[in-house]
What does this fold into?
Amino acid sequence: MILIVNGEKTETAATSLPALLEELEYQHRHLAIAVNHEVVPRAAWAKAALQDGDAVEIITPRQGG
It folds into this structure.
């Protein structure tokens, strides 16, 4: 399946957000995720099914000044 992850086409076998995070090797504990411009609460990640063509934004916090 093809997803748009953070603005880039990505081919993946993942059908759920946890599977996608594992496949992309995200190890951050603090993430925010939106699918098709809708924020998905962490408690719903395992239930959020991904479909071909979905746009997924994975956001990690940064410190700066």
Notes: The longest strand covers residues 55-59. The longest helix spans residues 17-23.
